Amino acid sequence: MRFINPKTDYAFKKIFGSAESKDILISFLNALIYDGNSTIEDLEIINPNLPPKVEGLKDTYLDVKAKLKDGTLVIIEMQV
């Protein structure tokens, strides 16, 4: 069996960028950023597409955009 590399944009978005994967994303972020502490308790996955601020420029597509429980917006990008 072959698996897709989770460091590609497509796989990263599929793994972490949907409402169904919210618990996985919370666990991943807490492990990576907060040394396993449950600092992030809840978040909401929101639309990662950003329309251009200047007409004629292209849209920006983020890997994952989320809103934390306290209202803070976070952008999670996979960089290799």
Structure in a nutshell:
The protein has 80 residues and is α+β, with helices and mostly antiparallel strands. The protein has one domain.
If you had to describe this structure to a student in words, what would you say it looks like?
This protein is α+β, with helices and mostly antiparallel strands and 80 residues long. The chain has helices at residues 9-16, 22-33, and strands at residues 43-46, 49-50, 60-61, 64-68, 73-76. The chain has one domain (9-76). The protein has two helices and five strands, in the order ααβββββ. The strands form two sheets. A three-stranded antiparallel beta sheet has the order 1-4-5, with no helix packed on it. It is globular and about 45 Å long. The two termini are 24 Å apart. The mean pLDDT is 80.
Largest sheet: 3 strands, antiparallel
**Over all CA atoms, what is the radius of gyration?**
14 Å
Strand order of the largest sheet: 1-4-5
- Number of distinct helices: 2
Strand element count: 5
What's the N-to-C terminus distance? 24 Å
Mean of all residue-level pLDDT scores: 80
Uncertain regions: pLDDT < 50 for 5+ in a row?
none
**Percent in helix:** 25-40%
What series of H and E elements makes up the topology? Answer: HHEEEEE
- Structural class of the helices, strands and pairings? alpha+beta
> How many domains make up the coordinates?
1
Coarse shape: globular
Topology:
Layout: H1 9-16, H2 22-33, E1 43-46, E2 49-50, E3 60-61, E4 64-68, E5 73-76
Antiparallel strand pairs: 1-4, 2-3, 4-5
